[in-house]
Structures
1.
Amino acid sequence: MKTEIILKEGYPFIFTSGALFIFSLLFKFNVFLQLLLFLVFAFFVYFFRNPERVPEDESKGAIISPSDGEIIEISETVAPVVNKEMIKISIRLSIFDVHVQRSPIAGEITAKEYIHGLFLTLNDNKASELNEQHRVLFSNSEKIVVNQIAGFITRRIVDFGLFGKVRLGERYGMIMFGSQVDLYVPKNTNIKVTEFQKLKAGESLIGFLNES
């Protein structure tokens, strides 16, 4: 299946800003305004880019980052959906990151939960609990949860509709604009990342499942 270079979710933003830029040229708007409209158009094209990614490690048990961004916290807590103690890896996205999320393991999507919540700023400690979020359970020999969390500006989490079998690094959804993704992995996972490390979805190695 052919992959979109630009996500269709971005078309309304790209076409509207592009039309406004062309309109400004045709009617000879102020040069500063023309430049501003062009930058807005260019930003939307850049934001909704959908690059190909190759996993850093595809060996058995490999866990690949589900999201672009920076790790802001690694801790142990009770994971949603499965309701058991797991390692949580919180990944904060900036508006300059690719906002597509990808399957962290090869296996199956076996459950989803959409939580309608608030839109607190992600600097608020309660945001990961109270904000709107979409939780997806990935399963093979182990279970992994990925939670997409909307931020203050973000007002939409997109589900691409996948259910059942997924490939390692396969795209399954996105969050509009700045946001956070929490990855929950089993406590015996061999973690290969540290806090403040930058990650790329579908590419960066998180660690390995201990399948013994």
Note: Residues 62-208 form one domain.
2.
Amino acid sequence: MITIRTSLAALALAASAITASAQTQTVCFTDAVPLQPTNWTSTVSIPKFNPNLGTLQSISFQLTGNVQGTARAESLDAGPTIVNTSFSANITLTRPDLTPLVVTLPLANFSDSFTAYDGVLDFAGASGTTHAGINVTDTQSQVSPPPVSDLALFTGAGNIILPVTANGASIATGAGNLITQFQTDAAAGVQVCYVYLPNTPPTITCPGPLMASAGVPLQFQICASDVDAGDIVTIDVSGAPAGMTFTPPLPASGNPICVTVNWTPTAAQVGNFSIVFTAIDTRQRSSTCTVNIGVAECHLLIGTGNGNSGYTIFGHYYATQLSSLRTFFPVTMVDMPTFGWNQLPQTLTVQVVMYNPEMFPTNPDQFSRAMRVTKTGLGTLSTEYFGLRDGIGLRAEVFTLNGQPRVRFPFTIDGM
């Protein structure tokens, strides 16, 4: 037996990556043993799976064996006979401990009818034959695990050296007196593919830009997850303003993990806020998202008539178009109070005022016209407008809840 250490690793080694599914990926490596006379023992060198890529799920081994050569047979029998010849080699890929991974048996079969021995041992004529230029290939595959230990064996830095053997296995039968001669060369090609869950960073989702108003509760949710179910994802935050709370408290971990954010800005927090949320997985891969919140002051004023009165709310002075102010509500275009029909007097006057120096630096104080609202019947209203409009449109809306009429005062802000 000849032991040969192949030098083709540097030339034949190749890698390719393809997507196997929505989650798993595959990376493959190849090496080869060149054509040479059997019987031989050689090795192939295959890079181990890099754990930085992800978590190894399975390994597929493919062995392609090629056998080439010549088969000769001569019958020495005194009468005619049929000789059956099998030209082949047994090619085996093993682990470093020599336990087999894949076996191939390239095989070419021949059946020849011979006469009685013609007296000349030439592997030709009527009693002999020569099959030259034989070239056969066989490819076999195997997937591991089992055993589970292969996942650890093939993971790590550097290469793993895998022995390959090729042993001639040619035979001829049929004659009682038979001379055979086989010239057998064998080559092997090896492909090892690693199927793995990639170590992709976790995903984290944040809402788009948000508008908030001082005194109005704001709530939104941050969620994160990792494609690898075995990973734990931790959400944390930077730049959170005073008074902002998180449920569960941060940092919070899970996979998936969602955090509910609550915040009621104060009048002192009018302005723009950028809050950065970070998701970090078990392997310290991270992703971030940013929530941008613009905080203004916006109030729904309820009075008794139209006029020109000024009021200080949350420390900011507003010149209104009301004769008197009964109450006010911090509002946004989304969050606003609703009133039962009997909560409202027969006639009232409402106005919306806003202080937003961040979005409207040249015109921070904006307001709607004063709107007089009069009940004209159960569930019906009439409206009348007074004064000037600066950037805000206001209307009255009646809707039914649990069979009872209710009222709200939606508004719009120009440019938002």
Note: The CA atoms of residues 209 and 292 lie 5 Å apart.
3.
Amino acid sequence: MWVLQKALARALSMRFNKRGMKTVSRASIETALLAAVLFACFGGPARALSIRSHYSRWNRSRPRRSGTEFIILHTTEGKAKGSLDKLRRNGEAHYFVDTNGKVYRIIHRDRVALHAGRSMWDGRTNLDNRSIGIEVVGYHNKSVTEGQIAALRDLLADLQRIYNIPDERVLTHSMVAYGAPNRWHSRSHRGRKRCGMLFARRSLRLRLGLERQPSFDPDVRAGRLTVGDPYLAAVLYGDAARQKEAERHFAGNGARVIVAGRSAWDIARDEYNSHDTVYIYPDGTRRRGDEIRDWRKVPAGTRVEIADACANEPESVRYLGRDGGTAAEIAGDEFGARTTIYFLPDGRVRRGDELSDGDFKSMPGKTGILVGYVHGGAISSRRSAFDVCGPKWNYPSTVYRFPDGGFRNGKEVDEGAIPGGTLVFFRN
């Protein structure tokens, strides 16, 4: 029925267009109407979408979005129960689609859910403020179930109608997520996540009622980002033949073993230096990501164990000497930008544009670096965290530098208990 409804709507809009544009005959419209009636009579009533409320504790405190331009599709990269519990605990999605087709509400569709993380599309950033996030139980490179396809098709049709969202703005998380510069990429780049990648496949999109999709990455084309994952780009923006060819050519790309042409970042992305990412060397030695200092010495054949998750982890400060030998190795071409923040060991905090060439050359080890952030200033008795950055005050992406030099993210603080003098940094 949803196919006939879309076809009929398109036919009606064409029929009454201005002169000179395509039109359809009255007979064509009558035929479409007759087909819809026959389907309703003999094909049975359309299945009503059933959604269960399973709201996060954060639901009522999340702000309402000023507008909704996108729907972003995710895959959990993990099993149903653990994924649902985590998403609900942190308010990281609006909807959750289980393998049996059951749909759960986590955050009200009009409020902000923290699902997109560091994100950009066509120059717009922080897409949590502009989008609805749907988590589908499964993996970016494996098929979803028939029940999930049916439920997701109906859910998308409802949301697209409510918010007037066209097919080409139903995106995957992998399309909008981007990474800050690192030792492997000198510029901000697309490819931070492969999450939801399968929802770019043309054959699957058609089954979901999505007839159109983006044919290129507008931010790469405009030079705002570079391509960090050629395989992902081919799958996301190729035609059906190119998508299949990319998947065949890169059949081993998902292997979690470091070899020539497949780095720690290619496997673990931004979690490459996380405590929860474990590297098992060919001789059996085990190292956690935050224990490795010289990534050039990680031998080929090292196996990488990462936690299965597609959610966005809290931002963390990277350190000179641990995560790179120079500021440029850590912050890439953005090392001197206004939005790159330096935490010097003597307690001073400086933006990249406040430092000279000499400062960068003599920068001491253990200097902390945060890329892509705004320095919001200090909290005082007259200036709360909310006064500094609004509803972002408790986002996991918001970073607090306490007077004792320690760092915490927005999930770890109590607004009423943050000491005066604490500095606030929020994502640009």
Note: The chain has four domains: 2-42, 51-249, 264-305, 318-427.
